Amino acid sequence: AGLLEIEVTTTRAGDLPELSTKLMMNVGNPELAFAQSRIPNQGVGLARMEFIINRQIGIHPRALLDPASQPPEVRDEIERRIAAYESPTAFFVERLVEGIGTIATAFAEHPVIIRLSDFKSNEYAHLLGGSAYEPEEENPMIGFRGASRYVSAQFEAAFALECEAIRRLRDEMGLTNIQVMVPFVRTVAEIERVIEVLAAHGLERGVNGLRIVMMCEIPSNALSADAFLDHVDGFSIGSNDLTQLTLGVDRDSALVASSFDERDPAVLRLIEMAVTACRARGKYVGICGQGPSDHPDFADWLVGLGIESMSLNPDTVVETWERLGAAAA
Ligand code: PEP
Ligand code: MG
């Protein structure tokens, strides 16, 4: 992707009607962030760290923590790529600071929700040096991903590097518009532990205005919403995984793709439970899955439900804004 792929809109936020729901954007490519920030928006509802790591780093964090354990050709390649940096881990942290910092600066007047890494093991294995550390899982989609990594002995040190980048951006560089999002949390015990680990790495909820939200993307998150919400500032609904896991449809299988629909009554019921639980406690609730970008009727339903924000694909923001504004008029 390059700058030329962006259609810069001439519509400005001030030209658009006020809505009851904030319209945010999904932004993952630092190179496009400034151009995309010209599209009317109220912040970034989802910046996937995997996208930033793929572009800015391309090396498995554990290979950077211990390059000596790599075969000579990989070690040489790592050395070549990190030559300008003080150390392999400084390379990881500084490149991540640059990538996240670019997005947070482009959207400086709005919140930017950075999601902690959510690579699946098969995706991590594709990073340079990664295959040495990653298990061969039969079902990586429901395997070693998201929160389970941050609290594991294998991934703890790598996770500390992500935290260090965010801590520096917020506490040393003043980009306190950055908020943190935890993906793929299976149990309440897991989020409790993640919150402790984040605090141990200098990311303490409430300190310097830090809000920590959790993706609501596993049915357990909606079914036990209150228990999860005891530990976080709110939910962002991940309708992609929530639909996959509620309907039992593998997102990666074309053979069952026709059964994938965020608007299935069972998925809607879980979303309603999540939104109701957040609103009852005055907690943030947004959505950052693909659903409202793909289906206008789903976006309208979410607004009717009282969702606080929707994070959309950049190319659907203006049309969604205009449509919702016309419907409210
Ligand atoms: C989701 O599951 O809806 C989501 C936004 O996360 P991802 O698509 O990265 O799994
Ligand atoms: Mg997800």
From TrEMBL:
Highest taxon of the source?
Bacteria
Please report the stretch or stretches of sequence annotated as the PEP-utilising enzyme C-terminal domain.
19-321
Q: Which family does it belong to?
A: Belongs to the PEP-utilizing enzyme family.
* Function, in words: Catalyzes the phosphorylation of pyruvate to phosphoenolpyruvate.
Q: What is this protein called?
A: Phosphoenolpyruvate synthase
The organism encoding this protein is Frondihabitans cladoniiphilus
Give the fragment's position in the full-length protein.
Answer: 491 to 819 of 819
